[in-house]
Amino acid sequence: MTLTKELKLRIFEKAALCRAFENEVFQQVKLGVIKLPVYLSAGQEYIAATLSVALEEMGIKGPDRDIFVQHRGHSSYICFGGDIESLILELLGDPSGCANGMGGSASIHSKNANIYGHDGLMGTQGPIATGSCYASKRPTLCFSGDAAAEEDYFLASIGWASTKNLPIWFVIEDNNYSILTEKNIRRNWSMTDLAKGFRMDAYELNDDPNEIFRILPSSITKPLLLNINTNRLFWHAGAGIDSDKIFDRHKDFERELAKLEALEINENAKSKVRKSWNAII
Amino acid sequence: MECNNLALRDVIKEITKTHLLEKNGLAMGQCLTAVGWVGGTLPELYESEGMIELSMADVAGGGFVVGAGLAGRRPMYIIRYQGFNWFNSPIIINYACKSKDIWQRPCPIFIRSIAMEGAIGPVAGSSHHSLYYRMPGVKILSPMTPMEYRLAYKEFMNDDDVYYISEHRSAYSNANELPDMIADQPDFALFPISITRFAAQEAALELKNIYDLNISVNHIFRIKPFTLGSKEALKNLSKSKYGGCVLDDDYVDGIAKNIAYDLAVQSGASVKVMGLEDKTAGFAANVDNLPPSKEKIKNFILNIVGKGAK
What ipTM was reported for this prediction? Predict the structure, then answer.
């Protein structure tokens, strides 16, 4: 697929909105307004932003596909059409939140956008997405962290999806960490090698939209695994920063746009997020 | 009481066929289409007709079924030995059973969980319905007769909850209904679950014939939410001279004690439990762990009423 200037702008807009949202949540946690544990996806937003634009370009819109998110799923929720105010309400534990105030940060969902919530058991979205895809034959995206993807049942899902040749993409948002335990301590194998062992197409790549677009097929017709290396800017849970030396894709991708253009998009995103918060508190 | 002369296995087969061919349903499980077709309870259908052979990945298999439930296919999940649920159940219990509460997204699944015992060994034998019982969002029924099974399926199709159907292979040949046996002036009241219902009935008849003891038998078909077949059952228990006993095909430290507690509180009677002993089952007969037999039930009651076995 070709990444045009117009598509880059759309990706940047989505990512900017996610970033503005997560920064605001960070602040609201610090202020004590949000009291629930939060799993922030800042730094990882280009995966969902890029794939959501790619699916739109393929003509695969909300009603025609299913999205299964992981516990660190705010960016996926926002990029694939989840309502921001419902998400804010959810983080405040309000019964009118996107998961009825029961899901918190980790179990968000949207019926309207066909986004399925996560139950808190790591990796269960693998088999659930696979079973759903088997039963519906609809294009399906299954997001997972690199640690959750190690769950035995997640691996079995890749095997069954391959066996049944399902239209499902497994998207591993690989930030290298299980909380703070690095991948090379946990395993000596890669998800892409494993998927290939299951006879599934698989790619190891970075969360650079240019790189992602280069390898994406033009439609979702068969199983695929994308292990996309990314960076988590904030703590595993809560509002904190592990290091100030973490590579930030958002700053990097800004260079693809004119400086003023990027500035304006970022400001618009912040303003939109602020407006949503102001409408609620 | 007979029901069209069809044995339970034929009724299950007929229901499954209709579910797949007329209701857009799915039947999912391991080794379904192999020899025997799960005790003769499955129609000879294949994947194109909705009979889905899962891989041998047990935990993932439960998750595949949950996905199919979310997709609205009302899958039947066939678990050939109830003990396998220790692997099959996690994603069902933690996702399907909670999905309606958290996200208002129902995930109806009809879990056909099959018990059998006698030389099955330490893991697979007997019923394990207590495993599901303690978690919210699931209904548990244990149909042993054709009419009960039809009722269970009908309720499932008109509901959007997860249904755990606790079956027993030894009941598959049964074509008769099992009405409650209510004694006017009961000496003792039995509340049997699953396969113990047959032994309870036989024990009650023999205790009447040989010892002139009046034993009520109140069959438990609806385990969760727990309801008895008739309003008279509780009153009958209250009147029982020596109280009652819940019989189960699962370990006693589970559903049996929960139900016994409820019955005791509601009736004021003393209610005991009989079920699997708190020990690991072996394959050989001398180390097996079996549900209460007719003889065991008889002796248990005779000890309570103070009569030695004749």
Answer: 0.97
